[in-house]
Give the backbone structure.
Amino acid sequence: MLTHLHIENYALIRESDICFGGGFVVITGETGAGKSILLGALGLLLGQRADVAVLADKTRKCVVEARFDIGGLGLQPLFDEADVDYDDTLILRREILPSAKSRAFANDTPVQLPFLKLLGTRIIDIHSQHQTLTLADSHFRLSLLDTIGERRAENGERAAYGAAYKEYSQLKRQLEELTTAEAQNRKEQDYLQFQFDELSEARLQADEQEALEQESQLLAHAEAVREGLAAAAAAIDDESEQSVLSRLRQAKSALAHVAHYHQQADELLKRLDSSLIELDDINGELRSSADGITYSPERQQEVDERLALLYRLQKKHGVDTVADLIALRDELDVKLQGISTLDERIQALMEQVDRAFATLQQAADRLSAARAKAGKALEKNILPTLHELGMPEARFEVALSPTASYGPMGHDAVAFLFNANRGGALRDLAKVASGGELSRLMLAVKSMLTSHSLLPTIIFDEIDTGVSGDISVAVGGIMQRMAGRMQVVAITHLPQIAAKAGQHLKVYKRLEDSEERTVSLIRELQPDERLSEVAVMLSSDPPTPAALQTARELMAI
């Protein structure tokens, strides 16, 4: 439960510390005194968006800090998952800086707003005066029935349906994506097949382009090359005394005559002999190469056509090498094979979708059955409370009907049918209930929900709108009974409700002369002050003797 709230530099509140007791707590004050400011500050701790406009002093930061007793609520796993230190005493702090940045902390550990929002759903329920409108919201109605069902024997149907819907939705989305891809691929298949056939028929080899380019160069200059080789061979050895080999042989003979007498001449002779062998070999290769070169116009055309094909394919596909063309051919082959097997994959996925839909239908039927039981339980339990709240002839009925399709919340539409008077047809609650009746209906719903709830705190912000007299006494009595199970905080303007509380906090305004600024203050009233305050709420300030006596009777003191 909420045990302490510290507010600093927030709207009209300069600095305030509020201690909350357990049981039933009321907050009263004149209109505009700042009662709802407390809820705004508390909302910051529960993850609501921060606005720098709430800073009364724009040069200082705003701080809102609260302490909660959360022992026995089973919240440690939530803290462990968020890597936040757990303690039975939870301290939440939110700061808004003048720069408009905000920071949030849980037990002095920085946290993100989603953690605060999730935590808030487990520790406190703030019921604003406008929340009665949610009774007309289909999502709220379904969630209400599911919540009631989870507290009865029908446990887990909502979670089971959610899992089935998620599985079905994912498979259906995959099927739609695959079907779309298949349709697109079918459009491209003929073109892909043409490209693949063209590359396959080319019988590509990774290293052929370089070899063909060299051969093309040789064929284009075959005669000149042959003549050059022959001339080189003739210069080396043309069977005349002036050829290179003839002159070298003469040099060898001359060195051989003196090699026995001169060591250097002998070494030169050996080197010359090696040169003759190498040069003779070169001469043989020159003549052989020259004899092997012949010009073939047919081969020239064949090579040029092959190169032209390779160049055309490279330009067409925007690549630079034959190896790139081969890679593209293989990629096209994979795509075509994928298209050929797509029908089988689609068929298999369709079967999965059908099975998932059957599971979804079964889960939806079980959820609908659980909701029907929960609806009967709601009808049974809410009517006595409505009778107590001054609607003895009220009738209330939960009407379930199937929707046209399956959605995240199931296959159900739910209507709350209501008539506050005897006779007449039941009609949709939102169309026939007044504001006061809606407030009493919501109070009855909250009273039922909290009867088995682990939620430690509920705050009512003027849920008593539109009620007075004996009905307000009944409203206070219901809140008092709820406070036996949990902490109930009610912001009210009705003395009949304020008189039922165990703790009474008063919000009031004061003009600070030093700064000519109006501020909101809050303090806990002592027993004698409570009596006077309830009497003022009944009459005027100062209260009349009759009002004081009535206040004593309301407070039973």
